[in-house]
Amino acid sequence: MSIIPTSRAVSAPNRAKTPKGQATRARIVDAAAALVFEEGVAGTSLDDVGAAARVGKSQIYHYFADKSSLISEVVTRQTIAVLAGQEPHISRLDNWGSWAAWRDQLVREQDENHCTGGCPLGSIANELADTDEDARAVLVDSFDQWERAFADGITRMKAAGALRADADAASLASAVLAAVQGGLLLCKTRKSTKPLEASLDASIAYLRTFAP
Amino acid sequence: MSIIPTSRAVSAPNRAKTPKGQATRARIVDAAAALVFEEGVAGTSLDDVGAAARVGKSQIYHYFADKSSLISEVVTRQTIAVLAGQEPHISRLDNWGSWAAWRDQLVREQDENHCTGGCPLGSIANELADTDEDARAVLVDSFDQWERAFADGITRMKAAGALRADADAASLASAVLAAVQGGLLLCKTRKSTKPLEASLDASIAYLRTFAP
């Protein structure tokens, strides 16, 4: 299963025609993603992005219509990063060993980050879901992709007889994603991986109750 | 069980000595809470708060040392509101009927709000947990109080024999709070109560697996 997202932004006008233009555009998105992760969307100005990417504001406007379309691109970029960061396990959640390895990797990452930052997608969703309809649409896509990885694993476990037929892949996958998001928020607030561990462990243990 | 929080802010210098002063101070906190809920902390200036509360900035500084101490007070105020909004059920989660009623109330509230806003505490935590240590401490207290309501219900159900002795009240309560937070974030992002329902239902169903 491939979980590389299909980017909405690709269908938006992309004025980077040359390799150099593409590189500049990517540098702007990378700089914006790093700033948004640390300072939030409201705390990140296009001047900040320009300074960090070493480009003028006119160059930013050459590639992006406005801050909102740059932020939508940041969401697409972070979706790729967040999902890639859960590989190889998230693409093969068709056995309990992979679920355990996926859980351990998420917890370890927060431990290594000293429980700062939380989920880059969850943070942007929290900030923009009510105010930026374009960003919200991209975030819905992102969460759908993430959830689909869980649902695919559950569906394959059902097919293999490792989970009962009454396990509802879609709603279980949705509950797992909520457990990840809530666990990461509590982890970031409490500066401890304990709430994330409790949340993921409960989530996987609940899934296990659907074993035949 | 009383879940009225013990406010840290009460022990901070409170310069509102008269009933009129108390009323002004409360009006400032109410205005700040409403603005922060809609615009976020970064999007709320003390000028905005002053305008909404019909007080000058010097009056705000009379009652609060700085924006950060006002925000800490907003967290305390929202904690009271969030927990009160889950009454009467959250104080009596010692039977399955109360868990179901509590769940329905949370879902109904989001439905009535058209899935906007999310959790006032979760939103502030997401924004400030890495940058405002004072606010973070108050938020940890808030989440602890919220979680304690779940843990108390679980503990009483264990005592009454409705849950087995191996049900770990603390980690189950932590997982329920994560389910609430993650469910509310996905609800706000997807503009649908479905993810919140999936998350809460999985959480309560998992709890039920500890019934004897």
TrEMBL record, chains A, B:
User: Which species does the entry assign this protein to?
Assistant: Subtercola lobariae
Top-level taxonomic group: Bacteria
Ranges annotated as DNA-binding: 45-64
The lineage, from the top, is:
Bacteria, Bacillati, Actinomycetota, Actinomycetes, Micrococcales
Question: What is the protein name stated in its UniProt record?
Answer: Transcriptional regulator
Q: Which InterPro entries does UniProt cross-reference here?
A: Homeodomain-like_sf, HTH_TetR, Tet_transcr_reg_TetR-rel_C_sf, YxaF_TetR_C
Q: Per the database record, which ranges form the HTH tetR-type domain?
A: 22-82
Keyword terms, alphabetized: DNA-binding, Transcription, Transcription regulation
Mind listing the GO molecular function terms for this protein? DNA binding
Q: Where is this region: Disordered?
A: 1-23
A Pfam family the protein falls into: TetR_C_13_2
